Amino acid sequence: MDVVSVQFDSEERKVIIAEFSSVQDASFWRNLGVVSRDDGRYTQFQLKTGTATSASSTPALKRAFSFLRS
């Protein structure tokens, strides 16, 4: 299960407002947490920020090197 470090809008942890590439310092950032990539709150965050991908999409790196496939 893949997990993502996120920041919630409040202590209620209902809405994700930021995503981080790694765990952050909780003394600096408020309302941090970790969610799975299939968590509904994370899906809603991706839809709002335009970062959602469909299951049929190809990862960028794979697309970038598609010329190697014959």
TrEMBL record:
Protein name: Uncharacterized protein
